[in-house]
Design goal:
By secondary structure, the protein is an alpha/beta fold. It has a single domain, classed as 4-Layer Sandwich (Purple Acid Phosphatase, chain A, domain 2), CATH 3.60.21. About 30% of the residues lie in helices and about 25% in strands. The chain is built from seven helices and 13 strands. The strands form three sheets. It has a six-stranded mixed beta sheet, covered by helices on one side. A five-stranded mixed beta sheet has the order 7-8-9-11-10, covered by helices on one side. A two-stranded parallel sheet has the order 3-5. It starts with 6 loop residues before the first strand and ends in an 8-residue tail after the last strand.
């Protein structure tokens, strides 16, 4: 099967902490089950609870603060060596990854600090993590602009991995409680509104994460079919989006086959 005929897989919001190896092992089995039939793995951010591209991410000669991330990173490295193209759209738990994969793991990964236009099949698509979908979240946007800038990156690099990771974990817990309401019965409407605006900009496909709600919406604008997908999250729903060329999209959930069947 030619690469152009193989599937794309989109995942988001795994939030691996490294403290629960079982959850990472499920993800690794999922990737192994898909690797022969995919050409692209697109990660829509927040693969880990805190992911910063430290120059000394893996310390030499002593235990690393991020050694518990290695199973997942090594699996991505294996996929890359097998010819699968990896794209990483930074989320709100990802920082300064532009050169990380090449310098630390010898992988050419397309890293996007923000959303951007992509060609998916023959369609013009907008792809992003999705944390900037709600223009009314002024406080979050202000905090994001402070965190995601070169001066803050230098400070985090100076403080080092261990302390930065401890601070980030405390902050992310508060952020999750504020912006992700598990009791909400429906997906937040801001994401669909954001997608509609992108359709008006002549995008045909919008693919986001961040909401933690899998969602598929079809909209017709001036006789043109437009599709919005929210990948949901790997952490709870085990949801992902599959694109099968030339034009088929479908949201799926990974369930492991029963043992002995």
């Amino acid at each position: 099967m030619a690469l152009s005929e193989k599937d794309w897989i989109f995942i988001s919001d795994a939030h691996f902490t490294g403290r629960d190896p079982g959850s990472m092992e499920v993800f690794l089995r999922f990737v192994d089950s898909e690797k022969k039939q995919i050409s692209h793995l697109v990660i829509l951010g927040d693969l880990f609870e805190f992911f910063f591209g430290f120059k000394n991410f893996f310390s030499t000669g002593k235990p690393s603060a991020f050694s518990d991330y290695l199973p997942v990173l090594k699996k991505l490295q294996s996929l890359y060596r097998e010819g699968i193209r990896i794209k990483y759209f930074e989320g709100n738990h990802d920082f300064f990854l532009q050169s990380f994969f090449l310098e630390q793991l010898g992988m050419e990964v397309d890293v996007y600090p923000d959303g951007c236009e992509e060609r998916v099949g023959g369609s013009r698509a907008f792809i992003a993590h999705g944390d900037l979908s709600n223009p009314k979240q002024w406080t979050y946007r202000a905090l994001r602009s402070i965190l995601k800038n070169p001066l803050t990156y230098r400070l985090i690099q100076l403080v080092g991995p261990r302390i930065s990771r401890q601070v980030a974990q405390k902050w992310s817990g508060m952020s999750y409680q504020r912006y992700h309401n598990e009791g909400q019965p429906h997906p937040p409407p801001a994401f669909k509104t954001f997608a509609h605006q992108k359709f008006l900009e002549e995008f045909e496909i919008v693919i986001l994460g961040h909401s933690h709600y899998p969602e598929a919406v079809e909209e017709w604008i001036d006789g043109k079919r437009c599709l919005y997908f929210n990948v949901g999250d790997w952490a709870v729903h085990r949801s992902f989006l599959r694109f099968t060329p030339p034009d088929r999209f479908r949201l799926e959930r990974y369930t492991e086959p029963a043992i002995g069947r």
